[in-house]
Amino acid sequence: MTLDLLGQAMKELPSNLPCKCTKVGAVRWHTDAEMLRAAGGRLLTLWGADDRDRDGRFRIYAAFLLKEGVVVFEHEMEHGEEPTYPSLAEIFPCALHMERAVHDLLGIASMEPDHRGWLRHGGWPRTAFPLRREFDGDQQFSINSQPYAFVQVEGDGVHEIAVGPVHAGTIEPGHFRFSVVGEKVLRLEERLGYTHKGVSKRFEEMPQKEGHRLAARLSGDSAVAFSWAYCAALEAITQISCPPRAANLRALALEHERLANHLGDLGALGNDAGFAFGLTQFSRMKEVLLRTNVAAFGARYLFEFIQPGGVATNLPENANRLLLEHYLVLEEGVSCLRAIYDNHAGLQDRFREAGILKQELAEKLGAIGLAGRASGVPLDLRVDHPWSPYDVLKPNLVTQSTGDVAARVQVRFDEIFESLRLCRMLIEDSVSGPIQADCPLAEPDRLGLGLIEAWRGPVLIALESGPGGTIRRCHAHDPSWQNWPLLEYAILGNIVPDFPLINKSFNLSYSGHDG
């Protein structure tokens, strides 16, 4: 097994999935990562830590997903003017942006030649690092934004189109620099980080039992997933089990979140292809679902539903009947609209062969979640590494092989029907019992992971406890880190007017990515 190849110096790491941690030196940081990649491992996330107040060292962590579970590498660096570590970008291309972000926030640099800032945007000096222990969060800095060194494409007839960061719609900011000949895209380079909120530092100011509230607001469309990931990490550290009834309700809320986002996306994709009828109908169905959330969970969006040890409220007495009736109506409506989408020549002309991401490239770039499954990457934590109650529900894996907009549309349709099946199982086979277990304060200096398959892909929380119920550090990771670079490849060879449609078919998070 892959984990056995790493040797015996591994310890169990508290998590809702099987997880081990091993300390590695600079050489093994790179060579063992190569071995994991060759064995089919995927990079989940990468983050750094300033532990000079404890032992005078900086640390860099990397979490990998394997068939057996999760393995975390921990690499220590001596204090210096700019501590360095080997880059993983050649092995896992998605590591590049993560490494650049770590440098902006902590001042530890990978041995990768691309050291352009990723999150800073002139908001603080190059010599200031917000996640270092001595950083003063109340200090005021003048904004000193400098031109960003986009990679330029040269040749006859090549010109650039700059889009953003401010867009025409009410959406979050991101800059897209196209190199084109006519309308054909030769290259796209993204620049993100405009919505950086400093949540890692904010977590350190919060008690452990309140951190789930901030986690739920990291990316509003994944509130249930992030709050569950936080609670899973805290519960793993404190060694408590969520009651079965609460676990079922958490899964029900997570599937409702998946349904709401897929409905919204299918409507927006129809609208981007000139089919406003689709937007109207799917928006109506999403609105009905959100109103059903109010009746069942007490809120349209479930920012406060999942709490450490369980959930905030139980379902009302009439909720089961109400939900089952709604699922039937929703299933019929989505089935009807799917037939319309599949047989609408104009839609299919826009969807098919647009924004293709082939499986080989998707695997190489580390595609994950919905975008990966649409390109034939068979990965869904609910299926491959099920936690309670998904180990009992046994979800079906949904994939497509063509990797175009049409495939990403079909994955959404199929996952809606699968989520409805799971929701019915949770309602009809619902267990009784308490919805809350007491969650004690965690012992200090304990590191735990929470990993949940959100609608977009796996979200991860790495939580380290501090003394007296405080949070020493908390790293949050959204799957958009892996998938934003995919868009730069999927647009190649397409025309510029197709970019909004292709972009929406991925529908990645700016807020969750920027932190």
How is this structure best described in words?
With 515 residues, this protein is of the alpha+beta class. It is 40% helix and 17% strand. The chain contains 18 helices and 15 strands. It has helices at 2-5, 26-38, 95-106, 199-203, 211-215, 223-238, 244-272, 276-297, 319-343, 345-351, 359-365, 369-373, 381-384, 390-393, 405-428, 480-490, 499-506, 510-514; strands at residues 10-12, 19-23, 42-51, 57-65, 70-78, 84-85, 109-110, 158-163, 175-181, 184-191, 306-307, 310-311, 447-453, 458-465, 471-477. The protein has a 5-stranded mixed sheet with strand order 1-2-5-4-3, with helices on one face. Strands 8-9-10 form a 3-stranded antiparallel sheet. A hairpin with a 4-residue loop joins strand 4 (57-65) and strand 5. Helix 6 (223-238) runs antiparallel to helix 7 (244-272) and helix 9 runs antiparallel to helix 15. It is globular. The two termini are 35 Å apart. The model has no long low-confidence stretch (mean pLDDT 94).
Biggest pleated-sheet summary: 5 strands, mixed
Instruction: Report mean pLDDT, rounded to a whole number.
Output: 94
Q: Rough shape? A: globular
Helix content: 40-55%
Strand count: 15
Strands of the widest sheet, in order across it, are 1-2-5-4-3
Q: What would you report as the Rg, rounded to the nearest angstrom?
A: 23 Å
Sheet/helix structural class: alpha+beta
- pLDDT < 50 runs, ≥5 residues: none
Note the gap between the termini: 35 Å
The percentage of residues in β strands lies in 15-25%
Individual helix count = 18
Oligomer: single chain
